[in-house]
């Protein structure tokens, strides 16, 4: 496989650079406070001053808690959950707004560059190895004014590794390998960073093979009609990423490339043994993004060109002689100008154009490549143009030095399939002290239906899903109040309360609910519904004593969107929480995480409260770090409500108990 060859090349390049012990991540609240958060606005700002509610998992936390995936890491944050459906793994949800089979309500970004499939809207969360990340930034709440469609309930920015001091000339690398007992995991990952006065680059490659865990408590999946089948949740992942930045006399050039391939077993095109349960599903994609930045005094001009190709293939029948194949492309261009009117006043003006194409959505025979059906999707496309403006007023930069900042953003979206939409976002930040601030955020969001939701139709199959050309875009309005405080050098906390209203959420429902023979589903817009909630995140950092992180969220939503006894917040726990402990002693360290999911409802019966626990122990030597980690100490798989079709009550996570050995070395 090409991507495995890339990994070998990267690993080979790692033996040349000099030893760089300073590459090890360190933690301090001062460092956390000084981070320039990129996901929160058009201009990076600190956690204290950013005009958004943002949670950050930094490099130190990734390293010390030995997170094995992005999904595992973000579940420790208040307001964030990661679910599975019969069709997909690793579906992130923010503030309880559930996904369909695809991640199209939370935007996935790589260094601020959006990536998602043009046909379904799906953004692949696990397309980069977590060891290649400097941090994970999670913006909670409406973000489509900043990023456009699909940032409906939030955005997750995967920030690639950085040198410890970005102002120095240096070269550094890291190699990491892992194996495990129960799931028979084998993985290798390597990356290299280089920086001089004019050139900075990052390059990484990763490969992972995991035979997986037996499904549920008795290894058998029970489908919608009561049939059973032995199921093993295997996964295979590989990816390659490079990010090159070149400074010239004319301006700053940046080229980002990411390529990934993920194979995994799934629970059918529908949760039926006859629909491919246990066969493999494949997702792959290639993202190329070019940025040019020209500074003119305190103002700047940014031009962006992006091409995003993604493909998905999956089984549709028990013997795997019929498969589905989806391929689509997104071509995106943006021009953004930032005008610094005076030191306290700036204006951002942007124009974007995007073309989304469905190249194919075929049902075919994988043996002879015969195409049975194109599903009404071949060469479907939609164009969308957006105009955006952001007005920022920094009263703390005036002579009076009032500790207030105001940011107002608007976005006008013109999609050729729908009426135009105007959304706005307004934030006020009151800086109470150097270590505390109060934020008020009002935001609106917009998501255009995907090509799949609009046009899909399989004339060969019965009881399938049908698109709906009469769908309307999803919208939302929310208000939130956030308080950030660091009462001492060891403590940090962030408290948020919010209220939100959602309209036209796209759901699946029976087309002919009174028919006993036609079980087909169609996409429809649901009625308006609302939610309110609170979030608390706490960090205590003391290298001589212990590090602690804790989070808790509470959310209550109504049933305004109910259709046939299904509604979004029926399947969302009212309370969930996480706790993490990390202790260092010289070259030794140990960590423990506990994640609690409250009781929730299923379609047939309630699902009781659940929890998972992980523990790890590390020894740092001269050659590298050795780690033993036990995942899922209780050896009990999490149950998730099956809310998409609603004919079975729940699905198991597919994550059993595993004992892993990990070795990491830095060059």
From TrEMBL:
It is found in: Cell outer membrane. Residues 48-155 form the TonB-dependent receptor plug domain. GO terms for cellular component: cell outer membrane. Residues 240-619 form the TonB-dependent receptor-like beta-barrel domain. It is a multi-pass membrane protein. It comes from the Bacteria. Its main location: membrane. Keywords: Cell outer membrane, Membrane, Receptor, Signal, TonB box, Transmembrane, Transmembrane beta strand, Transport. InterPro entries: Beta-barrel_TonB, Beta-barrel_TonB_sf, Plug_dom, Plug_dom_sf, TonB-dep_rcpt-like. One of its GO terms (biological process) is siderophore transmembrane transport. Residues 1-20 form the signal peptide. One of its GO terms (molecular function) is siderophore uptake transmembrane transporter activity. Belongs to the TonB-dependent receptor family. This is Outer membrane receptor for ferrienterochelin and colicins. It comes from Pseudobacteriovorax antillogorgiicola. The lineage of its organism: Bacteria, Pseudomonadati, Bdellovibrionota, Oligoflexia, Oligoflexales.
């Amino acid at each position: 496989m090409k991507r495995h060859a890339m990994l070998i090349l990267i690993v080979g390049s790692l033996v040349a650079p000099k030893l760089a012990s300073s590459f090890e991540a360190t933690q301090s609240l001062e460092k956390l406070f000084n981070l320039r958060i990129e996901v929160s606005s058009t201009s990076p700002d600190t956690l204290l001053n950013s005009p958004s509610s943002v949670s950050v998992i930094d490099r130190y936390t990734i390293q010390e808690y030995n997170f094995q995936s992005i999904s595992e890491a973000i579940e420790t944050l208040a307001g964030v959950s990661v679910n599975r459906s019969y069709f997909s793994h690793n579906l992130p949800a923010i503030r309880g707004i559930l996904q369909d089979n695809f991640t199209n309500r939370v935007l996935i970004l790589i260094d601020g560059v959006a990536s998602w499939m043009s046909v379904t809207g799906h953004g692949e969360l696990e397309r980069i190895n977590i060891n290649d990340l400097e941090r994970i930034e999670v913006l909670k709440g409406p973000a489509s004014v900043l990023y456009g469609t699909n940032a409906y309930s939030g955005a997750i920015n995967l920030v690639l590794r950085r040198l410890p001091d970005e102002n120095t000339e240096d070269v550094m690398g890291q190699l990491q390998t892992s194996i495990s007992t129960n799931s028979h995991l084998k993985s290798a990952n390597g990356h290299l960073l280089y920086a001089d006065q004019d050139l900075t680059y990052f390059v990484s490659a990763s490969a992972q093979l995991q035979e997986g865990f037996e499904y549920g408590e008795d290894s058998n999946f029970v489908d919608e009609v009561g049939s059973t089948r032995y199921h093993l949740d295997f996964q295979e992942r590989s990816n390659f990423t490079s990010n090159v930045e070149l400074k010239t006399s004319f301006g700053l050039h940046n080229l980002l490339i990411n390529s990934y391939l993920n194979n995994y077993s799934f629970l059918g095109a529908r949760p039926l043994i006859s629909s491919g349960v246990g066969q493999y599903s494949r997702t792959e994609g290639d993202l190329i993004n070019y940025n040019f930045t020209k500074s003119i005094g305190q103002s700047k001009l940014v031009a962006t060109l992006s091409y995003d190709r993604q493909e998905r293939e999956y089984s549709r029948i028990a013997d795997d002689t019929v498969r589905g194949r989806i391929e689509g492309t997104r071509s995106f261009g943006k021009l953004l100008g930032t005008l610094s009117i005076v030191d306290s006043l700036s204006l951002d003006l942007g124009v974007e154009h995007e073309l989304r194409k469905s190249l194919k959505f075929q049902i075919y025979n994988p043996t002879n490549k015969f195409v049975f059906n194109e599903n009404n999707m071949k060469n479907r496309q939609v164009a969308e143009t957006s105009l955006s403006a952001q007005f920022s007023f920094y009263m703390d930069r005036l002579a009076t030095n009032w500790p207030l900042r105001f940011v107002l953003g608007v976005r006008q979206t013109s999609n050729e399939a729908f009426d135009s939409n105007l959304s706005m976002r307004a934030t006020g930040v009151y800086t109470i002290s150097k270590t505390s601030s109060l934020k008020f955020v009002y935001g609106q969001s917009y998501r255009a239906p995907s090509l799949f939701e609009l046009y899909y139709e399989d004339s060969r199959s019965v009881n399938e899903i049908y698109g709906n050309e009469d769908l309307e875009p999803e919208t939302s309005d929310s208000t939130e109040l956030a308080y950030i405080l660091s009462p001492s050098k060891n403590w940090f906390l962030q408290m948020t309360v919010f209220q939100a209203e959602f309209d036209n959420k796209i759901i699946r429902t029976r087309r002919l609910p009174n028919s006993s023979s036609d079980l087909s589903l169609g996409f429809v817009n649901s009625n308006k519904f609302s939610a309110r909630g609170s979030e608390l995140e706490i960090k205590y950092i003391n290298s001589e004593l212990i590090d602690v992180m804790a989070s808790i969220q509470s959310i209550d939503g109504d049933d305004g969107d109910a259709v046939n006894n299904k509604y979004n917040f029926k399947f969302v726990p009212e309370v969930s929480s996480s706790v993490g402990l990390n202790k260092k002693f010289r070259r030794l360290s140990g960590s423990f995480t506990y994640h609690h999911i409250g009781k929730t409802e299923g379609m047939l019966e309630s699902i009781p409260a659940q929890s998972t626990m992980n523990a790890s122990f590390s020894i740092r030597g001269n050659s590298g770090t050795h780690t033993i980690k036990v995942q899922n100490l209780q050896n009990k798989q999490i149950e998730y409500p099956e809310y998409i079709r609603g004919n079975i009550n729940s699905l198991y996570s597919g994550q059993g108990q595993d004992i892993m050995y990990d070795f990491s070395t830095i060059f």
